[in-house]
Amino acid sequence: MNKKIIATLGPSSFKKDVVQKMDKYGVDYFRINLSHTEIKDFAPLVKKISKWTNKKICPDTEGSQLRIGRIKNNHKTLLLNDEYYIYSKKKYKNLNKNELTFNIDNPGVVLKIGDILNIDFNGVSVQVIDIINKEQIKVRTIIGGDIASNKGVAVDRELNLPTFSKKDLKILTIAAKLKLKNIFLSFCSNSNDVKLLRKKFSYPIEIISKIESTEGLKNLSSICKVSNSILIDRGDLSRDVQLEKIPHAQRYILKIAKQNKTKTFIATNLMESMIENKQPTRAELNDIYGALEGGSNGLVLAAETAVGKYPDDAVRILSNIIYEFNNKKNSLKLKSILEFSSPSLIEPHGRTLIQNYKDDSFEEELNNPQSLYIDDKTTSDIFQICNGVYSPLDKFMDIAEIKSVIEKYKLKNGISWTLPILFQINSKQKNNIPNKGYVLLKNIKTKKLIAYFKIEKIEKLSNLEKYFFKWFGTKDTNHPGYSDILKKGNFIVSGTPYLVPRNNSIISKYELTPNQTRRLFHINGWSKIIGFHTRNIPHSGHEYIQKKAYENFDADCLFISPVIGDKKKGDFSTEIILRTYEKLLSSKSYLNYQSLLAGFNTYSRYAGPREAVFTALCRKNFGCSHFIIGRDHTGVKDYYKPTASIELFNKVDTGLKLIPFEEIIYDSKKRIYYEKLKDTKNTFKISATQIRENILNGKFKKNYLTSNDVYNEIKEAINKSHNLFVE
User: Fold this and answer.
1) What is the largest CA-CA distance in the chain?
2) Which domains does the chain have, with CATH numbers?
3) Residue 534: closest CA among 592, 589, 483, 581
4) Can you give the three-state secondary structure of 524-561, one letter per residue?
C-alpha cells in the first residue's frame, strides 16, 4: 500500500528549492498550519506554492484550542509561586509586552477558579486563582519554566469552545475561492464538526479529522464514518491522555479506524531530533516503522520541516523508511539487511550491484590450486567486475556472450551491453591451469593474490576473428585496441572472479567503488548525478560543458571520473590529471557546483562508440542518473565519425539521461565559450591534444585553453620537471 507523506511548511521550508526537493523526495500533501499563518498571507502563500509544486496544498485549521498569545521576544520564564494576569486577545494591543494573553476574547467566561492550565509540552503549569472579568484572569505558577508564543494550553476538564476560530472561518472562505480540496480539521470533537466543515464548501472536499482531545476519542467511531481520513496528533492528545498511555491511544485509534475502513495518519515527534540534527535517532526510526506496521496510511512531519534545519532531508529519510517498509518481504533476511538500497538513486544496470568477494579462509577449502599471473589490465577488470562497476556482468565472458554483445549490443540475458570483457591468456599459461575449477590470480608485478577464479571454459581467440571488424569498426592492425587484442594471447578464459578484500585496488586517494559513491549520494540526498568521463586533463571546453550541464539539469552533483588505469605512451599521466582536477574543483569557479572527483581504475580499449556506451553504464553503476556525451566521445584518430557515439546511444537502452554537446569553441572577439552549431569567425578549437603539443613544444602559455588554476598547476609541474606524460 502506498504510504503518504505530509510535510508542514514553515520558515525553514517555504522556499522554492526546498519545496521542490521535498516534492521530489515524495511529499503527497503540503500542510499550512493556520495557527502560524496570518489571514492576509494565506492566499499569496497558496499561489506561490502552487507554482512550485502540483502536490496537494492543505490548510490545517486552528480549531477550538486554547493558546497563549504573542510574547515579547517569543520567550517568558514563569517562576514558581509567582502570580500573573492573563488577558484576552482583544486586550493585546494595550498591554505591556511582558504581560500574557490568550488567543480567545473571553477567558474569564471559558475558565473558572481552580482550573489547572498546562502550557505547551515543557511541564509548565499554572492554576486559575481569580476571575477578574471576562477578559482577565489571575493565575499562580505551580510548576515553573519557559514558555513561548502561540503554544497550546491544556485544561484539566472539557472546555466549551467553538469548532472554528474567527481566523479559521475567514481563511476557509478564501480556501473555497481558491478551490482547495483537502482540509485538516483540528480538535475534531464529533461528527457534527466534520459535517459543518463540509457545508462551507460548494464542492466535495477531503477532510482529515485530527484526533487530539478526550471528546475526539469518545466520538471516534462516528467521526471516522464521516471523515476521509483520521490524523492522530500525539502531541496535543498527550494533554488529555496520560503520556505513558499515548502508545495505547495510538493503537486504539488505529484499530477503530480500521474497523470503519478509514485511513489514518500519525503526527508529532516522528523525527523531532532533525530539527537540529541531519539524521534521526534510531529510536525515532523504530517508532516510524512501528507506526507503519500498525497500519498507518501516512505520516506527518511538523516541526521537522516547518522550523527544522534539514526539512528536505527529513522528507528524504522518511521516504526511504517507507520504501524499506514496502519492500519488507525480504527485510528479515540477513542478505537484505546488509545490502545497501536507496529509492532515490538510479538502479544499477541490470538492477543488482555485483559484489564478488571471498575471504582468505576460502583458500583452505581448495586443494592446492594453481596460480595464474596476470597483468595490470586484467587486474583492473577483476576489481571492476567484483566491485560492481561492470554490473550486471559478474564474470569474464565466453565466446557466446561476446558474440551476443558484438552482434546485438546485449548480454545473453537480454540486458544492454556494448563492450566485450575478456580474459586472454597465452599457450604457456593455458598449459599451467586446469580446464575447469579454481585457480589463484596473482598480479605479475607485485605477486600478490588478487582473486580466486572459477574457470568455466577455455576457448580459442581465433573463433572471434571474424567479429573483430564489428567490434572495432576496422581491420587496421595499427588500431590501438585491435592490435592490443592480437598481442595478448590466443585463448580466452571465461569464469567468475572473487576478490580477496585485503588486496584493494587503490592506486589513488580518489578511487571509490560504486558501493561507496552510492552511500555518499544517499547520505547527502543527491539523486540527480551527472557523470563525466575523461582520460585527459581538464580544459576550458570541459569546464564549460560540466557547468552548463549542471545548470541546465539542476543537478545535485557533478561526478568527475577520469580514467586512472593503465595508459599508453604519450597519454597524460594519472597524477597530473588528478592534480589539475583537484585544483579546478576546489577553485572559486566551481564553488556553486557540487562535485565529486573519483578516479575510474580502468584502461582505454579504443573501441569508439561501444566504449562510450560502456563508460556510461559504468557511471550508472556508480549512481549517475545523467551522462555527458560530447562530439567524438572516446574517439580514436579518424577511426570513428564524430557523431558515432551519440548514434549508438540512441540504439541502446542505458536507462540514463544523456546530455549531448557539440564541439566547444572559443570566440576570441567576444571572449566567450559556446557550442559550435554553425561556422563562425574569430573562433578557436579547444582540445587536450593542443595542450599536449604545446607542452611538448615548449609553447605552453596562459590562454583560452585552460583555466588559471589548471594552467598554474601544469606550469608548476613543468618547472619542477615532473613527468606529465606516460613514458
Assistant:
1) 106
2) 4-62+164-334 (3.20.20.60), 72-155 (2.40.33.10), 362-499 (3.10.400.10), 514-719 (3.40.50.620)
3) 581
4) HCCCCEEEEEECCCCCHHHHHHHHHHHHHCCCCEEEEE
Q: Cite the DSSP H helix spans in 586-661.
A: 609-622, 644-649
pLDDT, one tens digit per residue, over 430-474 is 999 999 999 999 999 999 999 999 999 999 998 888 899 999 888
Q: Cell triple for residue 221?
A: 467511531
C-alpha–C-alpha distance, residues 433 and 369, integer Å: 9
User: HSE on the CB side for 274, CA within 13 Å?
Assistant: 28
Strand-strand pairing, 371-374 and 595-597: unpaired
Determine contact, residues 37/329, Cβ cutoff 8 Å: no
d(CA 289, CA 318): 10
* CB contact at 8 A, 448 and 377: no
Identify whether the C-beta of residue 611 lies closer than 8 Å to the C-beta of residue 727. Answer: no
350: cell is 541490470
CB 320 within 8 A of CB 358: no
Of 56, 598, 97, 549, residue with least CA distance to 298:
56
Supply 252's cell numbers. Answer: 486504539
The DSSP code for 563 is B
Name the stretches of the chain with pLDDT < 50: none
CB half-sphere exposure, 634, CA atoms < 13 A: 27
DSSP letters spanning 580-603: HHHHHHTSGGGTTS-EEE-BB---
Q: Which helix (H) or strand (E) holds 421?
A: none
Q: C-alpha dihedral over 178, 184, 189, 190, to 10 degrees?
A: 70
Tally of CA atoms within 13 A in the half-sphere of 259 that contains its CB? 10
* DSSP per position, 99-124: SEEBSSS-HHHH--TT-EEEETTTTE
In tens, the pLDDT along 583-609 reads 999 999 999 999 999 999 999 898 989
For residue 31, report the phi and psi dihedrals to the nearest 5 degrees.
Answer: -95, 135
Closest CA to 574 of 541, 595, 604: 604
Length of the chain: 727
Cell numbers describing residue 542: 570541459
Gap between the Cα atoms of 640 and 643, Å rounded: 8
pTM of the model: 0.82
**Amino acid making up residue 349:** H
CA 7 centroid distance within chain: 17
* Residue whose grid cell is 568455466: 456
Residue 398 host element (H or E): none
CA 709 from centre of chain: 31
> To the nearest whole number, what is the mean pLDDT of the chain?
91
Closest by CA to 431, choosing from 458, 464, 463, is 458
Q: What pairs with residue 483 in β-bridges?
A: none
CA distance 175 to 169: 10
Contact predicate 261/226, CB 8 Å: no
pLDDT computed for residue 20 by the predictor: 94
Cell of 364: 583452505
Preceding omega of 538 cis (within 30 degrees of 0): no
